[in-house]
Each structure stands twice: as C-alpha cells, then as structure tokens.
Amino acid sequence: xxxxxxxxxxxxxxxxxxxxxxxxxPQPLVDSTKAAIDAAKAAEANRYLPAEYxxxxxxxxxxxxxxxxxxxxxxxxxxYKKAQAKLNAATAQAVAVTEKVAARKEEVKAQAQQxxxxxxxxxxxxxxxxxxxxxxxxxxxxxxxxxxxxxxxKAALPEITTxxxxxxxxxxxxxxxxxxxxxxxxxxxxxxxIAKKGR
Length: 199
Fold this sequence. Notes:
By secondary structure, the chain is an all-alpha fold. It folds into 2 domains: about 25-100; about 105-199, Butyryl-CoA Dehydrogenase, subunit A, domain 3, CATH 1.20.140. It is built from 7 helices and no strands. It has helices spanning about 1-20, 25-40, 45-50, 50-70, 80-130, 140-165, 170-199. Helix 2 packs parallel to helix 5 (about 80-130) and helix 4 packs antiparallel against helix 5 (about 80-130). The longest helix is centred in the middle third of the chain and has 52 residues, at about 80-130. The chain is rod-shaped, with a radius of gyration of 32 Å.
C-alpha cells in the first residue's frame, strides 16, 4: 500500500514537473518579430537604412538559431529566455528603423533634388565650355564625342525627374550622381583643352 502511494505520488510529481518544466518555443513572439521586420522592409528600410535593417534581421536569425538549439535539447532542459531576449531586441530594432525611414527618404529626396539642380548648372557650364573649345582637324572627333556625352546626360534628365517624382529617391540619387560624374569628366576634359590652347 505504501509502495503504491509512493508510486502514485512520484508519478504525479513527474507529471507536474513535465508540464511545468517543458518550455515551449516562443512562436507568437517569433511571428510578431517577423511582422515587425516585414513592416520595416515594406517601408524600404532595407534600401534606405541597410545596416540598421540588417542588424534587426541578424538579431532575428540569432534568435531562430537559439530556438533550434533549445529544440534539440531534452524537453526538461529547454530554456527560451535567450531567444526571447534576442527576439525582443530584433523587434525593437525593426520598429526603430521603420520609424527612421521616412526621415531618411526625405533626406535622400532633398539630395537628389539638389543634385538635379546642380546637374542642370553643370550641363550649362559644359555647353559654354564646349563652344570655347579649340577647333581643328585633330580635335573635331574629340569634340563630337564630348558633345555626344553632354547630350546623353541631357537626355537622362527626364528619366531622372520621373524616377524622383515616382518616389524612388535612392535610384534617382544614384542616377544623378552618375550623370554628375559624367558631366564633371566632360568639364574637366574641356578645361584641359582650353588651357592647352591658351599656352
């Protein structure tokens, strides 16, 4: 009788330990963290703030790795506290980067608009210099190539403007910077040709 009672009590204790000791993976927290990171991506944080977005993604990946590590352990030995902390950090990072995206977009938009204005001025300067460039048999082909470069940059202006007005500020800025680099190269080449003529 005593043995039976002892077995029943031990059995009940094992059941209690099994139910209280078996930690479950924090799936709702994983889902909410993924949702926060998806929201950051939808706001284009991956493009406008790539380092901060990647930090949130890395925290999520570290948490998922920790969950896998815990899942591989014996049920009574599992603890998801580290994973929960990493998931909370990833969520906080994702929310923070999402909040910063709008300001970063405005900053990039302003840079693209200013760059577009500067580009227009640079094109005008290049055209003036092209008219002053020395003419001759040897320089004719070079000047034609330079004029073609100027025209190519001018032709890119409507596309850049459309991209900017379409809200893709980062691509517009990249295109503006590429066009500015091209026109600055042309201006330098023309200045060198004019300087040689003056010697």
